[in-house]
Write a structure and sequence with these properties.
heterodimer, A: mainly alpha, two-stranded antiparallel sheet, 11 strands, 6% strand, B: mainly beta, 22-stranded antiparallel barrel, elongated
């Protein structure tokens, strides 16, 4: 008996042990690929490359950047930083895009460090690497532009603590971006045929040169910018133009706002309007030669892959949230229809004319015979938009109303009226770089290098003409300074809502004069704005400084 | 099969004679046994009792007896057979083959007296033969008499006393009933076994199950509130099915979830399984709190173990119990929103405060006040329109138990709980079968099956309480023409019209969710020799759930002014979503134990091993564009690929996709005691887990404890006032694995749609969460000192524990990883960083006594935990978590971190003198304290402003009974707790929301009260200076709440006997009837609600029920 006891114990545990061990404890995730099992095929390489493109997604968020400038007001502080930045509440508690950009860098560096393992022919491999290096260069440019000095990580880390690097000076980061783009631009194809591995939307040669153009322009490397822009201009890009007008294109009657000289004048207006407005529509994406780089969106994908601007921009009655709305200052910037500068009424006069939603005739005089792009970009009281909602007339009054503009205007630009049914569901792509920007950059840089010349006028007139506007009066804008002012205003209105103004007011040094409080049509203050020159560069987020002590001294040097 | 069915009783009429020297003469060559008995009966007064069937089969015998005694004759006659006999009451001869046959036959008169511990008679005590209806009650002297078979068990019970079982061996029995609270002799379920309470050396609390049954409570978890010191039950309000509560034992040991391990009948189950157990099925519940008690559960025991044993068959004839109640639930408190006139007046004030124009001019205000233009200026009470004022709650439970060598317990319950949301309710069906069979002297096998089905069905669309809080009283619900409202304060408001919660409820869609929980267990015990036991157990636990939601296509609401449809108010695409989830947990386990006592020494050894494998899988399918809204089959939706969506992940559901883990364990325990006076126990467990990389998989958990029953020492043994005194202490290590992801050690890449190129979704592969191959367990070291005492014959009992619990290597997402490493918050590596200490004291006191027939007991318990974070990560000491909280070394988990508000600014002059706040700050705005004195209010001025974890908890309970009446109350409270009510929940006009009543006490220029309840009113767009996270929006969430109140009447035994009913009790019961709250400012939120912007209300309920025993 005494022996029986220990033996029976042993026997039972032996059985249990078999049960335990025969079912292995080796359990691996069924939704992840083991790092060691990856990089075995050309498809693996393509999948890893695709992930690099995630940093170009959700481009519609660039529209919020206009809310940090004098172009627009982003009314909801929980949607973006723009509300705080425009008010002058800039401190390290906000993250102006630091974390998300280093997340992109991680994916990009991982790709670039491992692509050599994949079995690919040299040409394909070379192109894939070029795409990723171009995207990485663009991300670093944005970091340098927003934050100034930034840690420059050129390869993956093994220990994440290695990533807490000393920030490199802004110039060094920019030089890295520029040299990377210059190294890869001509490896990239001019266009992609579409299909697996050759999808439209990948980085092209034109995109790389256009990125260079933007970077060089931003940092006043005027001659280089001219060269880069010329490279793009030699690649066959064109401004988008509508050939023939449909009845729908004429569905809004602007006769009460514009004194058409004749039918040809009317035709010119509607064509200009359609050409400017419809370049952003999904229906025209295929073969749109103006698009150099875009952030693509599709329909019926609920929140995930739609262009949110269809919900963020319109007023409540059209199902929108009025998240980003144009300021009076932007309205004032649009030219008169004859190309001359517009002289606005004083806010007090305008308020009295507007009479809180019961305007008199004088109120409308401010909306008469203006730049076509005003009508294509902005909804102002009593303007119609039949294409979006038949019979819709925009109206505005102050008071208790949800998801409406606080100023009195909404954007019309960048909204595709084909997608009105479902929240967030716009299939129109957001243009990250379009040809008009390159033309404007060329004009600005060339003017800085050598003053007015025919090539500059040609570039600018192309933009004017597409919008149905007259050519520039070369007799008036005949000096570098006068032309500079024109180019700056032209750039503001042409690119309104596309996120460019944020950097423009900083690089031109005009932010302190334009970032002033904004008012509604009743001349009641909507947002108090203050400016401090340190806002030219955003602070690193406090959480980043806490975790990388090397940022602290630079942060202090930036004034935060 | 009942043996008695085969008996044919032969009983002859007997007249008593002198039997002392009765002798028998018998001589026969070949006589049947039956005839032997008959002959003896003729000659003597002996009478034979036997089963004819059993004795008909024996061969005729030869017998020769002269003047022989009965024993001599029977010895001869039955020689060589397996028949035994016994003479009872001198004349009754029972022939039997086994003991049970004997017992069936021996009826003997039994007399007895039932007294209480102080020797006084207990009147009206019920004395019943166990498993039968035979029984009686005691008279006023406590006496009873019965005729019962010898050896049966009597159940003696009386209100206020512990039920006692007594085996009848003598004709005279004296029974001493102990009062309910004197539970020192109680047997307590411990890890892998049971132990007498007096022998325990670890900290274990047991539940008095009578406190959880018959209450209109939505989950077993919630019914435990306030009952056990150190066990915090958070009963957060929630809609049906999500109001099941959560448990924490002895403080938050880590920074994530610190939930206990639940073991039901030896099988680990989820908190959701536990919460849904039918309370009437619970036989006993033990809460293992210290390392000694819990360490046998090793890697999952760090935050306590709750052991539940469900009821077994008690043996004997079937006993049927029925319990049913019907009740109504109401909100404890609803948010109090201002009506439209006050709303409009404050809107104007807000506009003026912001320097704008007044939105409601005098004529409009007039219309609002007079209700004269309801199509433009209504006065809508959205809570009244959207919610029912009360919802029914009802439950019916039946159980049957009994048996002989095979004992059974069957139970079924139906629970139905209506939601305050119309047309929505929960139906819960629970079934349980516990069967045990003593197959032979050495083998016992048993099976436990339980199945619980929760079905929530809502014919209403989804109700968002955020939306309900956002609609304003000036929004029309229905216009006078019968259309849904489109007017808000005189203007068309498409946004709020589309958000109309009443329309969404009535026309928005429908949804349902079904959860099926099955647990099947087979266990066997083998006892080769006394003291040696082997036990094997195999179980499968399966959770299967399906949720469906249909979002209806809805027509646009017409613009009330123009009649044109407001397109944005339409829902153009209908869609059906189905989520399916299945989780199985397999367990196989063997244990062996051997115990031996010699002289004063007692020793017991237990060894065991277990293997567990958990597999979870989920699937989500969506289709859009159904032809009509009424179809439920997903195949009826459009087959166009763009209308289809399939995913393994279900939002907000864990585990999601495929998740698997396995655990192999070996464990053992050694007990030693000397003379029931000194106790020692050692435990050890080793766990091997699949969640770690090879080489890091084993974790080891030892513990030791000892106890000294001082009251057994000679110098105290005869003390009149001290009945029991025990000191105990323990030390040990525990682990926690629950915060480790299943695959955090794994170096893998994630895949999925990453971008749109070519106007199509493109798949991509990228590095995901940073893996950590050196990951290990959270290790808890716990020391416990406890004292248990009973005074004045255990009328007063006391239990107190002091503990120190240090959690090391807390698994945290290492947020100290530099931002430049490019990890999103879900990709931070899991690391063993962080250290938290919980020091605490727990105390429970009970006093039970009687005054005449009035018996009463009162008890109280409290627990105070001091929680401190000792370390967090490699670098940096703060971790902001969620929106409101910070984890900071030296502070407690759950600390609010924000600006410290210091009243309101009285004047613009004061604003100017104060540290610079925000650009819009004016008089009447919140004043934040400039903590660092740098004259600027910024992130550096944030401080810890309170905590939302109840570290101080107390409970009170009282019961009294008089004759058939009983009354019981349970109260529970917390202290030192705050709640952050953000956005709509506290802030007027938040993003267009309504205004709560307490805002009327706002700051105004006319009454510049620095301590006003609310700052100057502003709409949220102009109010960022006040909407900053600050202690101004923290509200006091202290409370004391009567959780349960019940009044019952039991019909007297005499009445019941005539109706052949064993027991009938009628009762009234209430849950959450009264609350005393700490908050004096807003007063319209429930103090048990979480920090949130909107939630379903907390409920109170009243019910009427009966208990019936047959």
């Amino acid at each position: 008996m005494k022996r029986f006891i220990p033996y029976s114990f042993l026997f039972l545990f032996f059985i249990q042990f078999l049960v335990g061990c025969s079912k292995r404890l080796e359990l691996t995730p069924q939704d992840q690929i083991s790092t060691n099992a990856f990089w075995k095929s050309s498809r693996d390489a393509l999948l890893a490359l695709n992930a690099c493109y995630s940093s170009l997604q959700y481009g519609f968020n660039y529209a919020y950047d206009d809310g940090s400038s004098d172009n627009a007001y982003a009314q909801y502080p929980w949607e973006s930083n723009a509300t705080y930045i425009s008010a002058g509440n800039v401190d390290p508690s906000l993250d102006a895009g630091y974390n998300s950009r280093y997340q992109s860098i991680r994916t990009l560096n991982y790709f670039l460090d491992n692509i050599d393992k994949a079995p690919l022919d040299d040409a394909t491999k070379g192109r894939y690497i070029a795409e990723a290096r171009a995207i990485r260069a663009f991300v670093y440019y944005q970091l340098a532009a927003i934050f100034g000095p930034a840690p420059l990580l050129k390869s993956s880390y093994t220990d994440p603590l290695e990533a807490a690097a000393e920030p490199s000076p802004q110039a060094e980061v920019l030089n890295f971006s520029i040299s990377e783009l210059q190294a890869v631009a001509d490896i990239l194809p001019v266009s992609y045929a579409s299909g697996t591995g050759n999808e439209a939307g990948r980085i092209t040669r034109g995109a790389a040169w256009a990125m260079l153009t933007r970077i060089q322009l931003h940092f006043a490397k005027w001659a280089d910018a001219v060269t880069s822009a010329q490279k793009v201009m030699g690649l066959g890009y064109q401004l988008f133009r509508v050939g023939t007008l449909s009845a729908a294109d004429r569905s809004d009657d602007f006769a009460s706002f514009i004194d058409f000289a004749n039918d040809a004048d009317k035709e010119k207006f509607y064509k200009g309007m359609a050409s400017y407005e419809q370049q952003f529509w999904a229906a025209n994406e295929l073969g749109n030669k103006e698009i150099i780089l875009s952030s693509q969106a599709i329909t019926n994908s609920s929140y995930e892959w739609g262009n949110g601007l269809n919900t963020l921009l319109p007023p409540s009655v059209l199902g929108g949230w009025s998240s980003i709305t144009p300021t009076q200052s932007l309205i004032n910037a649009y030219w008169n229809r004859n190309g001359t500068a517009f002289t606005p009424a004083t806010p007090a006069v305008r308020a009295s004319n507007f009479n809180d939603g019961n305007p008199n005739a004088s109120f409308y005089s401010e909306f008469k015979n203006r730049d076509t792009r005003l009508y294509a970009s902005v909804l102002f009281p009593s303007v119609t938009w039949n294409r979006y909602s038949d019979g819709f007339t925009f109206s505005w009054k102050s008071g208790v109303n949800n998801n409406n503009s606080k100023i009195g205007y909404n954007f019309r630009k960048l909204i595709d009226p084909a997608y009105v049914a479902t929240e967030w569901d716009g299939a129109q792509d957001f243009p990250i770089i379009r040809y008009a920007e390159v033309l404007l950059a060329y004009a600005e840089a060339k003017n800085e290098v050598s003053g007015p010349d025919a090539a500059i006028y040609t570039a600018l007139n192309d933009i004017r003409d597409r919008a149905g506007m007259p050519a520039i009066d070369q007799l008036v804008y005949n000096t570098k300074e006068k032309l500079r002012d024109l180019i700056r205003n032209e750039r503001r209105i042409e690119l309104a809502g596309e996120g460019q103004r944020y950097f423009d007011i900083r690089r031109w040094g005009i932010a302190s004069s334009v970032m002033s409080s904004i008012f509604d049509l009743n001349n009641s203050r909507v947002q108090e704005r203050t400016w401090n020159d340190k806002y030219i560069l955003m602070p690193y987020p406090q959480s980043a400084v806490d975790r990388n002590a090397k940022l602290a001294s630079v942060q202090a040097a930036k004034g935060y | 099969m009942k043996l008695s069915l085969f008996f044919l009783l032969i009983a002859l009429q007997v007249s008593a004679v002198n039997y002392a020297q009765e002798t028998i003469n018998m001589k026969a060559e070949s006589i049947d046994l039956k005839d032997v008995f008959k002959t003896i009966e003729k000659q003597t007064s002996y009478r034979f009792y036997y089963s004819e069937e059993d004795f008909g089969t024996y061969n005729p015998i030869f017998i020769n007896a002269e003047k022989a005694g009965i024993s001599e004759v029977l010895k001869k006659a039955l020689k060589g057979t397996d028949i035994k006999w016994k003479i009872i009451n001198k004349t009754k001869v029972v022939l039997y083959k086994n003991r049970e046959q004997l017992l069936e036959q021996i009826m003997m008169p039994v007399k007895g007296v039932v007294v209480n511990e102080s020797g006084q008679p207990v009147q009206g005590a019920s004395v019943v033969v166990k498993g039968s209806t035979t029984g009686t009650t005691t008279n006023d002297k406590g006496e009873f008499s019965l005729e019962v078979p010898e050896g049966v068990t009597l159940l003696v019970s009386a209100v206020g006393f512990i039920e006692q079982e007594i085996t009848v061996e003598n004709q005279s029995i004296n029974i001493v009933l102990k009062t309910t609270e004197a539970k020192m002799d109680e047997v307590v379920v411990v890890a892998y076994g049971t132990q007498k309470r007096v022998n325990l050396s670890g900290a274990v609390n047991t539940l008095n199950t009578s406190q959880v049954i018959n209450r209109p409570v939505t989950s077993l978890t919630n019914s435990l509130q306030g009952l056990i010191p150190g066990m915090v039950v958070l009963a957060r309000p929630g809609d049906v099915g999500s109001d099941i509560g959560s448990i924490n034992v002895r403080g938050r040991g880590n920074l994530g979830t610190s939930g206990p391990l639940f073991i039901v009948d030896g099988v680990p189950v989820t908190a959701g399984d536990f919460a849904r157990i039918n309370p009437a099925d619970v036989e006993s519940m033990s809460v293992l709190k210290d390392a000694s008690a819990a360490s046998l559960y090793g890697s999952r025991a760090a935050y306590g173990v709750i052991l539940v044993t469900t009821k077994r068959g008690k043996g004997g004839k079937a006993v049927v119990n029925y319990n049913g109640y019907y009740g109504a639930q109401k909100a404890t408190v609803l948010p109090r929103w201002l009506g439209s006139y006050d709303y409009a007046v404050l809107s104007n004030e807000a506009a003026v405060n912001a320097g704008g124009t007044v939105p409601f001019k005098a004529p409009q205000l007039e219309k609002i006040k007079n209700h004269s233009s309801l199509d433009s200026f209504p006065d809508t009470d959205w809570y009244a329109l959207a919610l029912r004022s009360s919802a029914p709650i009802t439950e019916h439970q039946v159980n049957v138990s009994g048996g002989g060598t095979t004992r059974y317990y069957f139970s079924g319950a139906y629970f139905r709980q209506g939601s305050l949301i119309p047309d929505k309710d929960l139906n819960r069906y629970s079934f349980r079968t516990n069967v045990e069979s003593q197959v032979s002297d050495q083998f016992k096998i048993g099976a436990n099956l339980s199945y619980i089905r929760d079905h929530i069905n809502s014919e209403s669309g989804d109700l968002s309480f955020v939306s309900l809080n956002r609609v304003t009283p000036l929004l029309v619900n229905k216009q006078s023409n019968g259309e849904w409202g489109s007017m808000n304060g005189g203007v068309i408001d498409a946004t709020l019209a589309a958000d109309n919660p009443v329309r969404k409820l009535q026309e928005g869609g429908r949804n349902s969710s079904t959860g099926n929980r099955f647990i099947g267990t087979l266990n066997g015990t083998f006892t080769p020799v006394k003291g040696l036991n082997f036990n094997g157990l195999v179980s499968y636990n399966n959770f299967n759930s399906i949720n469906t939601a249909f979002v209806n296509r809805m027509d646009p609401i017409p613009n009330f002014i123009t009649g044109a449809p407001l397109n944005s108010t339409a829902v153009t695409v209908n869609q059906l979503t189905e989520n399916w989830q299945n989780v199985t947990n397999f367990l196989s386990q063997v244990t062996g134990s051997y115990e031996k006592s010699r002289n004063h020494h007692f020793g017991k050894l237990l060894l065991g091993s277990s293997y567990e494998n958990n597999y979870a899988r989920s699937l989500r399918a969506v289709r859009k564009n159904f032809v009509i809204n009424d179809l439920d089959d997903i195949d009826a939706g459009s087959t166009d690929p763009s209308n289809n969506e399939v995913s393994g992940e279900i939002p907000n559901v864990t585990p999601s996709g495929i998740q698997q883990y396995a655990l192999f364990s070996i464990f053992g325990r050694f007990n030693y005691s000397y003379s029931e006076k000194y106790f020692f126990e050692a435990n050890f467990r080793a766990d091997e887990a699949s969640r770690f990389a090879p080489g890091h998989r084993w974790g080891y958990y030892p513990s030791f404890s000892g106890a000294w029953r001082i009251s057994e020492e000679r110098f105290l043994k005869n003390s009149s006032w001290l009945s029991e005194l025990k000191l105990r202490g323990s030390w040990g290590k525990l682990g926690n694995i629950n915060n480790v992801g299943n695959y955090d050690f794994y170096d893998g890449l994630t895949s999925g749609t990453v971008a749109i190129l070519d106007q199509k979704q493109q798949d991509g592969v990228s590095p995901g969460k940073l893996f950590n191959p050196t990951l290990s367990w959270e290790k808890v070291t716990m020391t416990n000192i406890g004292i248990e005492a009973g005074f004045i014959k255990n009328k007063l009992t006391l239990q107190a524990d002091l503990f120190n619990k240090v959690t090391e290597g807390i698994l945290l997402q290492d947020e100290s990883v530099p931002a430049e490493a490019g990890l999103s918050s879900s990709q931070y590596p899991s690391r063993n960083i962080g250290k938290v200490q919980n020091k605490g004291i727990e105390l429970s006191v009970n006093y039970t006594d009687r005054i005449g027939e009035l018996r009463y007991s009162i008890g109280g318990n409290l627990a105070k935990v001091k929680n401190e974070i000792l370390a967090l990560s490699n670098s940096g000491t703060d971790m902001l978590t969620g929106t409101y909280y910070i984890n900071r070394v030296g502070e407690a988990v759950g600390s609010f971190y924000m600006y410290q508000a210091n009243g309101l600014f009285v004047s613009d002059q004061e604003v100017a003198q104060h540290a610079t706040q925000f650009s819009g700050t004016k008089a009447g705005d919140i004043k934040y304290i400039d903590q660092n004195g740098d004259k600027v209010i910024n992130g550096d001025d944030r401080v810890i402003t309170g905590n939302d974890v109840p570290y101080f908890n107390y409970g009170l309970n009282a019961s009294l009974s008089y004759k058939g009446f009983d009354l019981a109350a349970i109260g529970q409270g917390v202290s030192g707790v705050k709640v952050y009510l953000a956005n709509e929940a506290s802030q007027a006009f938040f993003n267009g929301a309504g205004v709560k009543e307490y805002v009327l006490g706002r700051w105004t220029a006319e009454n510049p009260d620095p301590n006003a309840a609310y700052p100057r009113v502003l709409r949220s767009a102009a109010n960022s200076q006040n909407l900053q996270l600050s202690s101004f929006w923290l509200f006091n969430a202290d409370y004391f709440r009567v959780k349960s109140l019940s009044l019952g009447y039991s019909l007297p035994g005499q009445v019941l006997q005539r109706a052949r009913i064993k027991g009938l009790r009628i009762y009234l019961s209430s849950n959450n009837p009264f609350t005393i709250r700490g908050d004096k400012k807003m007063k319209d939120f429930d103090p048990e609600s979480a920090s949130t912007r909107a939630s379903y209300p907390q409920l109170k309920s009243y019910s009427l029920g009966i208990n019936l025993t047959l």
